[in-house]
Automatic annotation (TrEMBL):
SUPFAM superfamilies: ATPase domain of HSP90 chaperone/DNA topoisomerase II/histidine kinase (SSF55874). Residues 84-106 are annotated as: Disordered. GO terms for molecular function: protein serine/threonine kinase activity. Coiled coil: none annotated. It comes from Murinocardiopsis flavida. CDD domains: HATPase_RsbW-like (cd16936). This is Anti-sigma regulatory factor (Ser/Thr protein kinase). Residues 1-17 form the signal peptide. InterPro entries: Anti-sigma-factor_SerPK, HATPase_C_sf, HATPase_dom. Residues 16-132 form the Histidine kinase/HSP90-like ATPase domain. PANTHER family: ANTI-SIGMA-F FACTOR RSBW, ANTI-SIGMA-F FACTOR RSBW-RELATED. Keywords: Kinase, Serine/threonine-protein kinase, Signal, Transferase.
Length: 140
């Protein structure tokens, strides 16, 4: 029988207007809130930027007055970044793509997949949740 205490998670949530001008605010909030060091903070900022930008460009949250929720869930060994939006426009589910080198967009989820330990998409009637996890060495 194990007597080890269960791992607790620390959850932080914020809501942002789904407009490109708010992506920087989401990135700053996440970096400040997470308290992660150096390269790990840079990975977190990249993931937040890409997921928030996708919510602003490709979801129903992009409609006037729309918003998305950014949640950071900090575990002992990892942080989960989740962006929840108002649901997809009537297009296929998001997936990484290999955009031509000349394109200025289209690489967001490929970048997330390259930086994150794991990532995924959950769709339901409440919207779309795109999440990614990065490993940490700093504990909760």
């Amino acid at each position: 029988m194990s007597t080890a205490a269960p791992t607790l998670a620390v959850v932080h949530t914020a809501v942002f207007a789904a407009v490109p001008a708010q992506v920087g605010a989401a990135r700053t909030w996440a970096a400040t809130t997470s308290g992660l060091p150096g390269d790990t903070a840079a990975d977190l900022a990249l993931i937040v930027s890409e997921l928030a930008t996708n919510a602003c460009r490709h979801s129903c949250s992009a409609r006037p007055g729309g918003a998305y929720t950014l949640t950071l869930t900090r575990y002992e060994d990892r942080v989960r970044i989740t962006v929840t939006d108002a649901g997809p426009r009537p297009v296929p589910a998001p997936r990484p793509s290999s955009a031509p080198e000349t394109d200025e967009s289209g690489r967001g989820l490929a970048l997330v997949a390259a930086v994150a330990h794991t990532w995924g998409v959950d769709n339901d009637t409440g919207g779309t949740r795109v999440w990614a996890e990065i490993r940490t060495d700093t504990g909760v």
